[in-house]
Amino acid sequence: MNVCRFLLAAVFIFSGFVKAVDPLGSFYKIQDYLTAFGMASWFPTYLQLLFAVVLSALEFSVGVFLFFGIRRRFATALALLLMIVMTPLTFYLALANPVSDCGCFGDAWVLTNWETFGKNIVLLIAAITVFKGGRQIIRFITAKMAWMVSMYTFLFVFALSFYCLGNLPILDFRPYKIGQNIKEGMEIPEGAKPSVFESRFVLEKDGKQQEFTLENYPDSTWTFVETRTVLKEKGYEPSIHDFSIMSLETGEDLTDSILSDKGYTFLLIAHRIEEADDSNIDLINEIYDYSVEHGYGFYALTSSPEEQIELWRDKTGAEYPFCQMDDITLKTIIRSNPGLMLIKEGTILNKWSDNRLPDEYVLTDSLDKLELGQQKQESDLRTIGYVLLWFIIPLLIVICVDILVVKRREKKRLY
């Protein structure tokens, strides 16, 4: 029984943690589910985002409770309830395939729908076993200290989620992490058969929408709505396979020229410009002016239609050029709308959320003379270590206090 308990604890802690460090990723996956089931308009966006945060908090907390053997009725019942809901859902996903993966472990560990269903069968059996034998779960903390561990666990996971929501994920499991060379990520090994993708453009005329490709792209009487990247033939799939930058003004593919540029290039990323936060528009314009002054590239990437781009320009006074890119790709590159990315020769040097954009106090010289122009040094192991210290040290203190209290009681009984 305890084997099932620790298995569930490990899976729930891992699942909740990777969701908590990337709450927008979980939010996007929930949107995919609701769109697939035709329910996207049923729930406002803020409720979908709140659900993503609450789900990660519940999963992480249930895992911690099971591990320490506290809140046994709540933890075992909720674990069983989650598995009762998720197992048939993932069985349907495996059969119908409305979304490519369930997102149960975010981008940290992507499973196919059938792999997810198999995993959930095992976890469902474990959850039933633990629920039936809940009274046999051994406590590691006394009941009087359990409330403190419970409270701190909830506060910790919520604080982690909202920190990553306001900034960027502290751990980046996506192919566009800092230090990644985008061109290398798009390369296919010699002899491997590549997947065939096609860019499709949705345009509108006289109230009617229609899809086009580059081969049959219509005249200027049509109004651009959005662009999509469609898989035509499955083959070897590199980690980056849908990075394509199309100039809005000329319709030219700028991907290779931007990724081959030996100078610095700023990419302002707003997957939907009409939903982008405009609170830092002056700072964005200043960064663009700085780029022009020093001869750096600056492009805004979006999947929004031209009329929305024009509204943004009118509202913000933006003079930087706009390019089109696939919506999903933009949301994958950076978890901020807008967000800023600095690249050089295709290598990602740094990324900033809208709340952490560099300002005039930092941009005091050319980038080659500034720390800002060097690749930001990140270590996933060090980050995980810091997070674990913030979570484990307070718990260790509680456990030590709990042990001391128990020993004192035992001494009193002896005397």
TrEMBL record:
The transmembrane residues are 44-68, 75-96, 116-133, 145-163, 384-406
Gene Ontology terms, cellular component aspect? membrane
| Pfam families xref list | MauE
* Keyword annotations: Membrane, Transmembrane, Transmembrane helix
Specify the protein's topology with respect to the membrane: Multi-pass membrane protein
Stored InterPro entries: Methylamine_util_MauE
Coiled-coil intervals in this record? Answer: none
The listed locations are:
Membrane
Name of the protein this chain belongs to: Methylamine utilisation protein MauE domain-containing protein
Species for this entry: Bacteroides oleiciplenus YIT 12058
